[in-house]
Request: fold
Amino acid sequence: MSIVLRVNTTTKEIIREELKEEYRFLGGRSLIARVLTDEVDPTCDPLGAENKLILCTTLLAGTTLPMAHRLSAGGKSPLTGGIKEANSGGTAASLLARHGIKMIILEGLPQTNDWYILHIQKDGSSQLVDATDYVGLNNYDLAAKIQERFGKNVGIISIGLAGERGYRNSTLQLIDASTGYPSRAAARGGLGAVMGAKKIKAVVIERAANPYEFPYADKERYEAVRKKYIQRVLSSPRTESMQKVGTMSMIDFTSTVAALPVRNFSGQFFEQAEAIKSKAFVERAFIGGGRNKEGCQPGCIVRCSNRFHTKDGEYLTSGLEYETVALCGANCGIADFDVIARLDRMCDDLGVDTIETGATIAVCMEAGKISFGDGEGAIALLQEMIDGTEFGRLLGQGTEAVGKALGVKRIPTVKGQALPAYDPRSIKGLGVTYATSAMGADHTAGMTLGPGIDPSKKDFQVERSRQSQMVAAVTDSFTCSFGWGELNNEEILPEIMASLYGGEWTYGQIMNIGKETLKLERAFNQAAGLTEVDDCLPAFFYNEISAIDTVFDISAEEMQELFNY
Amino acid sequence: MIKVNYYELEWEDGKTVEDLLQLIKEDRQLRLLTHDTYTVIVNNKLIPPQDYAHTPLRSGDEVRVYPVMAGG
Ligand code: SF4
Reply:
């Protein structure tokens, strides 16, 4: 897995390079941290010529390990002003791996108004194709048109109008393996706008005619550990719950401990929770021909995804996740799956982050633009973003910009990025992660629930968050996080590295990849001008008592301890 | 009556934390997440897994049960 495609969007030159030797044991998030450190000035304009958009695969890409083909995207974030890595399932990473491509770097800025598609052909050659006919399309129409021209099975990484217009909440959308629609997103931090600034409408990857073969250091050893890993995943109770319900199973828990965000992070219980709990979800999901147990990546064995149809039987969206239901649902006071699924579809189509968008709509509700619970009002706001009205363009700048413009006091963001679906007064370790992660508020940057600590108390949360952030940086370098639970142990992980890359590995060595990544990311942010002031939660989490009688009470100084790695 | 994650639940005094976890696994309404690892807190005190079977719950107890979670 050693090919790097460097695409200069100023000169239109594409250079094929070998992956540097010092990047060999990096992938996904760790590779992005390293390349951005080496190649991008942290003070640059995220939408300017100096920023780069990195698209890369994980350390396990090209192997037959299930869930390993996650695509990571990275660059300086237009939303946070700091470093960003956002990852996604879908088909693109495995198609890149079949070509032996580890990384694509989009750099420069075009001097004309012409748009291009980066087209990687089945023989491995690549070119920039005129995209005039595709400009102005949102992701669903765009994907259909690309599939019509380049073939039904191509991988696509694309932007909708949000990315074209430079919305700071814009995503990169990828094709979902089970539905063939662009419903998977590298969602957080506005990387769609970075691709849009470079006037690349999509990356299209044909299936390689001569598939790359991973140079296993010890194939037999690899097969043995792969088998063990697969057995563990298949017999895990977590897998069973992911298949039966998917990530939506979280809601049954979060709603009971006031962790589910309700009406702009009010800290209250959601009185309509039953209507959006997993039982209601599964019942609704099967109406009209929808289903769960779908895999977003080819070969996934957990299959936590779903497809959601209208009651009339028409496909509406796929990969409807807990985060989306929480932020576009409960956090907006909305308890109707049909409305939430429509919002999800509109977000994927336009190419905006459902977490950021849900939080933004809730802030509009708090400001009195529309009222909490007004589903049609929420759809109308999203339509404004699609139409590009003046207010719609403001909405595209994210929760913080909108909150400030509307004079809202309670804006749930860290480093300009909206909080995901866990109230930090209920799960305090996650509050520490939100505050201190270089990514801005991000639940995947360090989940802290686990045995031994009371999540609603401040004790040991900083240590737990530090540890889980380190592990998360490794996870995002290896695989989909739902395949990680059974990989993350001393028996499997070092064995996999040794059988793939040779030598002997210790678990500690592998965790070190995470530690080094966190250090690089923090150094990038510091050089970009972010300071301790940016490592804080909004004041209202400290001042407003939640329904379970807690406030967030871990001070900024206490959280700075986290950086003593 | 005990409280589990802030919800009231009829309870027979003397049944243990282990009985409660079993109930959670079986009962749809209560099935928070059937993941393999929990954090159990009774009256603000953390209960280690080896004590689940001999930690009785009595009327008025406040229980909180947390699963292990990832991503989403
Ligand atoms: S576990 Fe879920 S998110 Fe991960 S690859 Fe499978 S379907 Fe996609």
About this structure: The pocket of iron/sulfur cluster is lined by residues A 67, 89, 295-297, 300, 302-305, 480, 482 (CB under 6 Å). Chain B touches chain A at residues 4-7, 28, 31-39, 41, 44, 46, 49, 64, 66-72 (CB under 8 Å). Residues 17-26 of chain B form the longest helix (10 residues). The longest strand of chain B covers residues 62-67.
